[in-house]
Amino acid sequence: MLVAVDDHPDLLRDVERELRNRYAADYRICCLSSADDALATLDRLAAAGDEVALVLAGEELDGRPGTALLAQVPRTFPQAERVLLVAWGRVGDPASGDAIFEAISRGRMDHYVVRPGGPPDEYFHQAVTSFLLRWAESGHRTPHAVHVVGESWSGRAYELRAVLERCALPHRFLLADSAEGRALLGGARLRFPLMVMPNGHVLEDPSDIDIARASGTAVAPDRDEYDLVVVGGGPAGLSASVYGASEGLRTLMIDSGGIGGQATTSSSIRNYLGFPRGVSGGELARRAYEQAWVFGTRFALMQQVTSLAREPDGVVVSLATGGVVVAGAVVLATGASYRRLDVPSLEALRGSGVVYGAAASEAPLVADEDVYVVGGANSAGQAVLHLARYARRATLVVRGTSLEAGMSHYLVQQIRATPNVAVRTGTEVVGGGGDCRLDHLVLRSRTTGEEETVAAAALFLMIGAQPHTEWLPPTVERDPDGFVLTGADLSARGLDALGRPPLALETSLAGVLAVGDVRHGSVKRVASAVGEGSIAIRLVHRLLAA
């Protein structure tokens, strides 16, 4: 259901016209003229078990800010998208901008949209459709979803969900003996776990390569030649692929997982240029993948690069599958992953309540439970806010003494304003367990050493950064933590190996550049990674010309 509330009859009529004309075939439309009526209606809908996807509210209702109504929506419909209707003349007004930012930061609303003008207002519909897509992907009507069906939460079924998460593919998990699982299988006797693709094709206990073939992203290179090979499919790698292919370079992207890298764990990136209403990491990755694909980039996903070597005809890239590619230039964009917690009792429950990364698809599975997120950076802040829309209580566990040290100001504000989010600074997870699935954690104060056992249905770990560089040859110089040295950061030994002054992002192996989180000294932000990916292509042109 879509709910719109405005106490101005003419303005409400405009909104109702646009909603009914465009969405009435798929959603029920409910338009109300007061905040009190809206709250009473939401209570009735919740009691009846109905779903509300979107609530639109005027800037002022009954003499009060419309955000006062939107702030109360999560009481009955925590996953509903809450949107403020803003007059066209307010856009660009400093006071209005400050008020919207403050309301979003304090968790009173999710988005804003400019009121509809003359019919049909496609700008209005573009925004509303994006809100409905966000709601759908939160576990309601996920479009083009892959269904994973398993006999248990853990094991290979969990690994498949992790693969799909890394690929930024919308998906749902169903237990084989659940009502939905049985309905999907229709009595067929198959080998679990299963993947049911959006076109109905069923993969029984698929390997990663099977998944890549089914999605059309597997190649079997036999010393194929490319101008550019990009190793890594995160924001930096996708950027390099888009710019490289768009500028006429024969481009291949290789990744051991899928696309998006750690960005796929971000449920809402609000400070990325050009997305005033925010964008999820998965959505950003999917858009970039389609851009690269249309420009001509070829993909080898679910394939591991095992070595690089400089030969007379170029940089030779070898794959674990036995394939070989020869590149004029290589861009390393392998990124970094979250560090392990090194608590054996919790590692044993990986996939059964213990998750590395935010795993947005897991959020609907922890409804009305107590969950914990470990980490102090933006990705952890975004994760705890996303989980709070489902969980009874979401707790952020931070080793440091404050959130401000590693997190953007707008996220800190929103976390502190969200009623069911708790923050425990100066704390670490030292134990936990459960019978087949996580049910408790042991937390320790780093100040006093005191330990406390708490009930927990899920633990999301987003700590530290470990670069994916262990496979690189010794000729690629790295710092003590494994991050790749480039340009002016190369040592005398690295410069000797290169044999000439390096380009800005070039490694100690000629013709090989490094960008994004894998590079020593990089700024751990999506926008920075995208920028480095684009800069790398200008350097690739210089390398190829030489």
TrEMBL record:
SUPFAM superfamilies: FAD/NAD(P)-binding domain. Signal peptide: none annotated. It catalyses: [thioredoxin]-dithiol + NADP(+) = [thioredoxin]-disulfide + NADPH + H(+). It holds the Pfam family Pyr_redox_2. The keyword Cytoplasm does not apply. Residues 226-533 form the FAD/NAD(P)-binding domain. Keywords: Flavoprotein, Oxidoreductase. One of its GO terms (molecular function) is thioredoxin-disulfide reductase (NADPH) activity. Coiled coil: none annotated. Transmembrane segments: none annotated. Its EC number is 1.8.1.9. This is Thioredoxin-disulfide reductase. The lineage of its organism: Bacteria, Bacillati, Actinomycetota, Actinomycetes, Geodermatophilales.
